[in-house]
């Protein structure tokens, strides 16, 4: 009986040991799968302590983005990864993390600094999560430096075009495909004696006379179909005064992707 009990005990121990080993292998496999996914993500990922904000884990993309090794990133704080300018400090980062805990996930732009001391822009999404039963702050970071530079260049280009638009000595009117006035420059307003508030949103017929209304309606269809028109037409000012304008009109693509009309008018 003693021998039988010993065998049963040994068998139970072996079975138990085997089960524990299997569980450990599954855990290691699960952890490896998590790490593979974690490191395969193109966005930088930081795992922070909920209370102190300390960096506890990062993925490969975060290391590449900031130029630090894995171990180096775990030894520095958010301040070292930020420009340090107002709104991009450790204090502001802590405030953002608290907001993620109390107010839910949120995104914002942040001016970052890499190991070589170069500044660049990122978009950060903070989320309060539970990892392995422990509350953490997850920061997903995307480099938007090129995107932000392109937006800035586009904004500057728009400002330049606006300056040229308003400074042009010729009247310029932009219409939609039905002849609704979307914009008009200062020269155009002077030609017809209107203010911008009075004319934007009106239809181009506000400038036409009884003699030219039907012509303008046909011209709108021709221009939208792709024709470029150059002609002299009878028009009228706000007070009803008849004037003659030389028009150069062509089809353009509007910001909403629809076709519109660019009309350049010279008072002759």
Topology:
Elements: H1 2-40, E1 44-49, E2 55-58, H2 60-66, H3 70-75, H4 90-103, E3 106-113, E4 119-131, E5 134-143, H5 145-167, E6 171-176, E7 181-184, H6 186-192, H7 196-199, H8 213-224, E8 229-236, E9 242-253, E10 259-267
Antiparallel strand pairs: 1-2, 1-5, 3-4, 4-5, 6-7, 6-10, 8-9, 9-10
Describe this structure as you would to a colleague.
The structure is a single chain. The protein has 268 residues and is α+β, with helices and mostly antiparallel strands. It is built from eight helices and ten strands. Strand 6 and strand 7 form a beta hairpin. The longest helix has 39 residues. The chain is elongated, with a radius of gyration of 34 Å. The model has no long low-confidence stretch (mean pLDDT 85).
Question: How would you describe this structure in keywords?
Answer:
alpha+beta; 10 strands; 268 residues; elongated; single chain; 30% strand; 8 helices
Strand content: 25-35%
Tell me the Rg in angstroms: 34 Å
Order of SSEs: HEEHHHEEEHEEHHHEEE
Helix content, binned percent = 40-55%
Please work out how many helical segments DSSP would assign. 8
Largest beta-sheet details: 5 strands, antiparallel
Class from helix and strand fractions: alpha+beta
Extract low-pLDDT stretches.
none
* Number of DSSP E strands: 10
Which sequence of strands runs across the widest sheet? 2-1-5-4-3
């Amino acid at each position: 009986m003693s021998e039988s009990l010993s065998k049963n005990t040994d068998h139970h121990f072996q079975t138990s040991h085997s089960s524990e080993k299997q569980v450990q292998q599954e855990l290691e496999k699960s952890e490896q799968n998590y790490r593979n996914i974690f490191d395969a993500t193109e966005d930088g990922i930081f795992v922070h302590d909920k209370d102190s904000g300390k960096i506890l884990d990062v993925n490969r993309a975060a290391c590449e983005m900031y130029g630090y090794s894995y171990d180096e990133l775990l030894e520095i704080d958010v301040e070292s990864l930020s420009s340090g300018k107002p709104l991009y400090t450790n204090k502001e980062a802590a405030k953002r993390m608290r907001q993620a805990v109390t107010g839910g996930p949120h995104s914002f732009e942040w001016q970052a600094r890499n190991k070589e001391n170069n500044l660049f822009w990122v978009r950060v999404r903070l989320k309060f999560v539970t990892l392995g039963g422990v509350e953490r702050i997850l920061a997903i970071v995307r480099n938007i430096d090129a995107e932000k530079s392109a937006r800035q260049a586009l904004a500057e280009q728009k400002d330049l075009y606006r300056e040229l638009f308003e400074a042009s000595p010729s009247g310029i009117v932009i219409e939609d495909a039905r002849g609704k006035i979307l914009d008009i420059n200062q020269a155009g307003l002077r030609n017809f004696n209107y203010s911008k508030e009075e004319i934007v949103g009106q239809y181009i017929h506000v400038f036409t006379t009884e003699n030219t209304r039907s012509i303008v309606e046909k011209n709108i269809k021709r221009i939208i179909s792709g024709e470029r028109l150059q002609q002299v037409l009878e028009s009228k000012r706000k007070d009803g005064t008849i004037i003659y304008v030389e028009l150069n009109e062509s089809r353009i693509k509007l910001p909403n992707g629809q076709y519109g009309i660019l009309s350049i008018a010279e008072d002759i």
